[in-house]
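I had to read the description of the data format several times before I understood it. In essence, backbone conformation is discretised, so a fold becomes a row of integers matching the chain in length. I therefore recommend that a typical entry be quoted early in the introduction. For illustration, here is how one protein appears when written out as sequence plus structure tokens.

***
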Amino acid sequence: MTIEVTHEPIEVERRRPETRRRPWDRRYRSVLLVADGLVAVAAALLIHAAYGRWAVALVLPPVWIAIMLAHRSYDRDVLGLGSEEYRRVVRGAVALPALAAVTYWLFVPDSALFHDMTMAALPVAGLGLPVRRTLRRRLHRRWARGRDHSPALLVGPAHGILELVAVLRRGTQELRVTGVCLTDPEHAAEIRKAGLPVLGGVADLDDVVRALGIGTVVVLPAPELDTATVRRMSWTAAAQGVDCLLVPTLADISAARLAVRPANGVPLVHVRAPDLSRSARLPKELLDRLLAAVLLVPLALPMLVIAAVVRLDSTGPALFRQQRVGRYGDQFTMLKFRSMRPGSEALRADLDHLNHNGDGPLFKVKQDPRVTRVGAFLRRTSLDELPQLLNVVRGHMSLVGPRPPLPEEVEGYPPDIKRRLLVKPGLTGLWQVSGRSDLPWEEAVRLDLGYVDNWSMSLDLSILLRTGSAVVRGTGAY
């Protein structure tokens, strides 16, 4: 790839980066303002229809917009980030009756106004959240495409760049990486093997950005990139109207665990420790067992039919029982519908040369000759996992969590990987919805550790929603 770069000086004072391209978030912010205004009008009309209060109908829309502005729900750093955006809307809804209470006590001693504004908080938030969610999914996908898929330039060491590119290529909103500026050019051959052009070093950043129309500069940590160098790169990006993103040293950390904490003018990133206490996970424990028990009621008859078909297809029991390791290293008996012929465990040594996961302790063979005809269908559709709902009811497993490991796997775990055992294994999880057995061992471990560190109820919900499509695709299910 040949690149002609120019060396024209940059006139910072005369450049207006904001006019170079109209950002998607400016249009998104305008639409949100209009949508919030319409939602507030709809909520005001509901209050007027219920209580006959035109004063609330007139006051609520501008007050709601002012509250959303005060809670910075239109800031660029939260646009398109659903969880944080929704939290600010909810905080605004809580602030609405609080503002009405202050007005009641200090200015207008009208109990009806306080009542009506308090009652307005529920419809305005109840209507606002789904409206924002719809707009975020549709408009962000349409308008942010230019930003998320704009030409991106990665700057940093070869090893870190290869890891980042691997993660980006697995995502649905990957940056379109145009090239790389290396801090260690002696490893340029490794980057080229990954299909990425090496465009130079850190000193070439200015020329490369201007020559290729780069939209985003992504800077990875490296010993060669000191504070002054990174600052100059941010100035270069700002002068040319492009985004400058800094990759944190710690990977696989959710945004909810990060916060900027200034210290004497120095912005320090605070990494909040994951809360894995019993009290924090009690709602998950109760919800897991309740949902599993509820699901077993309609699934009881289909499970009986599957058990009968397994028995008719081959000799042996309908259920397969195997010792697995749960939370804190406690062993339990995991249940599955039998998908192999009896005595298959004794044949494992003969199939070692066919192991698809030779880079780790997992043993998976595509088109395993030990699998029965019905078993192949059950594995492809994940129906063989249904009896694990009983493990969830008993408290051995969760609906969402890391993959339940075998005892012999755990014996070979280094201390870092044993962190997977701080939570219960799951019927589904990040590993299961990201490719299952097609993933290399290192990637499977990374996903499990990432789940443990970033666990939340919202993450569990997103994994459950992704499980259906993963089952339909059947990727890695063999």
Notes: The chain has 17 helices and eleven strands. The two ends are 41 Å apart (CA to CA). Residues 20-143 form one domain.
